[in-house]
Amino acid sequence: MSVEPNAEPAGANLGAPAQTPASPDKGMFGIHGTGDVSGFGGLVRRRPANADSPRPFGGYFDEVHDALEEAYPAFADAVEKVIVDRGELTLHIAPEKIAEVCQIMRDDESLRFELCSSVSGVDYLGSDNRRLHVAYHLTSLTYRRRVRLEVAVAPGTPVPSVTAVYPTADWQERETYDMFGIVFEGHPNLTRILMPDDWEGHPQRKDYPLGGVPVEYKGAVIPPPDQRRVYQ
């Protein structure tokens, strides 16, 4: 295909202010009727599984489950459900029990999950009252195994900090608090870590505005998605 020299790129408006493309109602993956011009709005997010996975779980997952059940007398009250999905084991834990479970996961000889590599938040807006989830990724260096612990709370409900068990969770819990507003009780210094101390709101919550937020310390404004310049 030949292109005329110095021809203006198709669909571009050079020098124009931030605007939508010529066809703002159609995204790359079929999005319609919104201001999303990224193209990704047409993707369908797969909802997480809600029902317990049946036994046997497969691999080492049954051994981890049974070892925790044997080592932790309050297992039945602490473990809300067990999900095996996409080759990963997730134990959903009652929020008030998470620090106790982490202690057992780290110290029991049959488990030995010595490393907490990540603490992160998820907002399942519209799913249920306990929309805010905290995911803990644990690794056993002794047995070369991985497991995810997950707790779910409503906005404003605190979660016990696990920093006394896993010191690596210190800054990770601060980031989860900063981005999602989840309060970790017992954290030694639960302050913002990415946003300014006086910032209002938590940017990774699903009901946080995508644009039009004043950047106070620079006097600028982030435009909403449908008013941003498009590069093609």
TrEMBL record:
Membrane topology type: Peripheral membrane protein
Q: Does the keyword Transport apply?
A: yes
UniProt subunit comment: NDH-1 is composed of 14 different subunits. Subunits NuoB, C, D, E, F, and G constitute the peripheral sector of the complex.
Protein name, entry field? NADH-quinone oxidoreductase subunit C
Described function: NDH-1 shuttles electrons from NADH, via FMN and iron-sulfur (Fe-S) centers, to quinones in the respiratory chain. The immediate electron acceptor for the enzyme in this species is believed to be a menaquinone. Couples the redox reaction to proton translocation (for every two electrons transferred, four hydrogen ions are translocated across the cytoplasmic membrane), and thus conserves the redox energy in a proton gradient.
| UniProt cross-references to PANTHER family, sorted A to Z | NADH DEHYDROGENASE [UBIQUINONE] IRON-SULFUR PROTEIN 3, MITOCHONDRIAL, NADH DEHYDROGENASE UBIQUINONE IRON-SULFUR PROTEIN 3
| UniProt keywords, alphabetically | Cell membrane, Membrane, NAD, Quinone, Translocase, Transport
> What Pfam families does the annotation carry?
Complex1_30kDa
